[in-house]
Specification:
By secondary structure, the protein is α+β, with helices and mostly antiparallel strands. It folds into two domains: 242 residues, no CATH class; 102 residues, Immunoglobulin-like, CATH 2.60.40.10. A four-stranded antiparallel beta sheet has the order 5-6-10-9, with no helix packed on it. Strands 8-7-11-12 form a four-stranded antiparallel beta sheet. Helix 2 packs across helix 4, helix 3 runs antiparallel to helix 4 and helix 3 runs parallel beside helix 7. The radius of gyration is 20 Å and the shape is globular. The N terminus is likely disordered.
Length: 354
């Protein structure tokens, strides 16, 4: 029980020497352990560190077009995650300012946990790229990455946020596999969802949150995840991102802090094609409920930059856990996250109340 108890207190009591909040660490293309193409000996070491192996059954002989897109998005995401968690582990190992622990036992436990997560994400990336190659596709290459974190607190908060999005996106992946008849791959992704959920429970405990966020986790759409991941890449550094047939939306920023109450939120985004000359809406995706749509009131326009306000109706809809916000060119009605993505101009903005 000591490790669980100390982990809850870790962020508040066991970190020292935070550095300025505008710090962002840039990561070059080189990933650990020979990724994206490890040698057999490197793969063996990865599997030992991951406490498990790549699935040794055959990849299905055929795959749908939706299935290929799924695998490309998964590989793109997993390479990003490998870079992030490897960088976090390196900062702790090297006692970088902001990542130092006063309790050696906690430092050792966190390091062991992160070492396993790095290796597990490496296997996810390798599996997705191996599957692409087996279907005659080019593997997804890593990018250069930049992470807007400056200490362990902000790194764990970011990890929890993007893992929330991953858990929602993998719901979409499973459904697309099922629609395309890729049943064996759907089972495999269900296994990965469990692994990501275990990680997320730990990230939440480290923030003194209850480990289980929601009874039905917020769903997402591949295009939202694709856009969000690119927010952590250095522009122009992704060798074959153009081969992933997904949309990239304009980034959406929330300028004031969402709270567990209904309030107006201020949004900011680029409007290169003057879409704000017409009616726009903010649409919220939360849990597995029908998306909520609120009118966007334009406050100001300066060049292509637009600011607007929309109600965040927390009290009416119990918008707990992850909520995905998007500026849409239609007020719906929307059946699900996929229909929201089809009409999205800017997004996703990520809100977590819990």
């Amino acid at each position: 029980m000591r490790l669980v108890t100390s982990a809850v207190a870790l962020l508040a009591a066991h970190l020292v020497s935070a550095i300025p909040t505008n710090y962002a660490r840039s990561i070059e293309k080189e990933l650990p352990d020979g990724l994206p193409y490890p040698s057999p000996s490197e793969l063996s070491l990865i599997e030992q560190a991951a406490h498990g192996t790549l699935p040794n059954g055959p990849v299905p002989p055929v795959i749908s077009n939706k299935g290929i897109t799924n695998l490309k998005l998964i590989a793109f995401n997993e390479l990003f995650e490998v870079a992030f968690f490897h960088d976090l582990l390196t900062n702790i190992t090297e006692n970088v300012e902001g990542y130092r622990f006063t309790d050696q036992g906690d430092r050792d436990f966190v390091s062991r946990a992160l070492a396993a997560i790095v290796a597990q994400e490496e296997l996810h990336a390798i599996r997705a790229n191996n599957a692409l190659v087996s279907f005659g596709q080019k593997p997804v290459e890593p990018c250069e990455y930049t992470f807007p974190v400056h200490d362990f607190d902000t790194a764990i908060k970011l990890a929890s946020t993007f893992t929330d999005v991953v858990l929602g996106t993998l719901q979409d992946v499973v459904e697309r596999f099922a629609i395309g008849g890729d049943f064996d791959l759907a089972r495999e992704i269900a296994s990965v969802i469990g692994n990501e959920g275990e990680q997320q429970g730990w990230f939440r405990i480290m923030q003194a949150r209850i480990p289980s966020e929601l009874p039905f986790l917020t769903t997402s759409d591949l295009n939202f995840a694709f856009t969000a991941i690119q927010g952590f890449t250095v522009p122009g550094s992704c060798p074959n991102v153009d081969e992933i047939p997904l949309r990239t939306f304009e980034p959406l920023e929330i300028l004031n802090e969402p709270k567990a109450e209904s309030l107006d939120l201020t949004f900011s985004f680029d409007d290169k094609y003057n879409e704000s000359d017409h009616l726009l809406w903010v649409t919220y995706v939360n849990q597995l409920n029908v998306p909520v749509v609120e009118p966007l009131r334009i406050i100001s326009k300066e060049g292509s930059r637009v600011e607007g306000e929309a109600l965040f109706p927390y009290g009416d809809y119990e918008l707990n856990g992850l909520t995905i916000a998007a500026v849409t060119k239609s007020d719906g009605p929307f059946a699900d996250a996929n229909s929201v993505a089809k009409w999205t101009l800017a997004g996703p903005a990520l809100i977590i109340i819990n």
